[in-house]
Amino acid sequence: MKTVSNNVYAFSKDNPPELTVPSGSVVKFVTKDCFANQITSENCKNALASFNWNTVNPATGPLAIEGAEPGDALRVEIQKIDLTGESAVLMTGKGLGICQKDFESLEARVVRVRQGFVEFSDKIKLPVRPMIGVIGVAPAGEAVNNGTPDEHGGNMDCKEIVQGAAVYLPVNVKGALLAMGDIHAVMADGESGGTGAEMPAEVTVKVDVLKNFPLPTPLIENDNCYMAVHSAKTADEAIQHAVFKAVRLVMEKIPGTSRYDAVTLVSLAADLRICQVVDPLITVRCELPKKLFE
Ligand code: CA
Ligand code: ZN
Q1: What is the tens place of the pLDDT at every residue in 124-179?
Q2: CA–CA distance, 98 with 158 (Å, rounded to integer)
Q3: Alpha carbon of 291 to ligand 2 centroid (Å)
Q4: Dihedral sign (CA 52, 54, 58, 60)
Q5: Averaged pLDDT score across all residues of the chain
Q6: Continuous segment of H or E residues that includes residue 251
Q7: Which ligand does the CA of 130 lie closest to?
Q8: Residues 6-30: b if buried by 16+ CB within 10 A, e if exposed
Q9: What is the whole-number distance in angstroms between the Cα of residue 253 and the centre of ligand 2?
C-alpha cells in the first residue's frame, strides 16, 4: 500500500504534496501523536522542560489527489485506524483546557493502552475508540495552522471521525492536499481538559473526488447519521452555523422541502453536539439520522 509520513504544521496551498494518487486510491498515513512523540513514559516528568512547542500538532501529508479541482468535494473514507505502541499521553494544567485556572503548571501523564483499553488508573479502564483529531485540506487563501479547525477541516477534534466513518471536505486548491494527524485512543465530546489520549497511529483511508457535491462541508457520515460540522469563535456562532448547515442538508436530500419543514425537522430529529471547546475556534456538529432520507 502507498504510504505517506512527512509532517506539515499548517494546511497550506504551498505545501508540496508528498504523494499524488488517482481518485479511488487507498493510502496509509503514518502519524505522530500531537506532541510529535516527544513525551514517553521514561521522560514524562521532565519532558516539558525541554519540550519543542514548534513541532506540536504535526499532520502527515499532504496527499494530492489527481483531478481534484476547486469546487469539488473530497470523500475520505476512514478504513482503519491502527494505534501504534502501548501508551498514550494526557495533558492539562496552566494555559490548557477549561479548568486551566485550577493549576499552576502544565503536566503531562503517560497511561498504558493495552488489549483494547486505556488504563487510566488501576480501577478505571476506558475502552479504546480511536478517532482522528486533525484532518483537512488546504484552504484557498492563507495557510491555517494545524491547531485551528475551520471550513477546510483541520483540528475539528470530533470523536465521530472513527474507523468506518467518511469525512467530506471542500476542495479549495488543485489536488486538494489532504493531511491528517492527532489521533486519540479515546476522547469525550468537548475535549474539555485540552487533550484526548494522544497516540501515534497508522490510518488507512480511501480518497474519492466528488464532482458537483451539493451538501455543506465539513460533513461526517457513518452508518446512522450525517453530521454537519461548523467551527467558530464562539459556541453560539458554531451552534447557529451547524444548524444552518443541517437545514441546507435536509433541503438538498429531500428536494421540495420548504425552509419551515427543514427547520422543524432539524428541531425534532437532529441532535446538536459539541465536538471540542479548547481549540482556537469551537467546533459543533448537528447529527441528522439517515433514516429521515430513506
Ligand atoms: Ca486536537
Ligand atoms: Zn490531540
Answers
A1: 999 999 999 999 999 999 999 999 999 999 999 999 999 999 999 999 999 999 99
A2: 17
A3: 32
A4: negative
A5: 97
A6: helix 235-253
A7: 2
A8: bbbbbbbbebebbbebebebebbbb
A9: 33
CA distance 135 to 100: 26
CA of 194 to the centre of ligand 2 (A): 8
CA pair distance 86, 201, nearest whole angstrom: 11
- Give CA separation, 98 vs 94, 251, 276, 279, in Å: 10, 36, 11, 11
Reported residue count of the chain is 294
Global pTM value: 0.97
Indicate the SS3 state at residue 195.
Answer: coil
Query: In angstroms, what is the span from residue 149 Cα to ligand 1's centroid?
Result: 9
Ligand 1 centroid to residue 181 C-alpha, Å? 9
Ligand nearest to the CA of 149: 1
270 CA → ligand 1 middle, Å: 25
Segment 229-252 mean pLDDT: 98
Residue-level pLDDT at 13: 98
182: CA distance to ligand 1 center in Å? 6
Of all ligands present, the nearest one to the C-alpha of 182 is 2
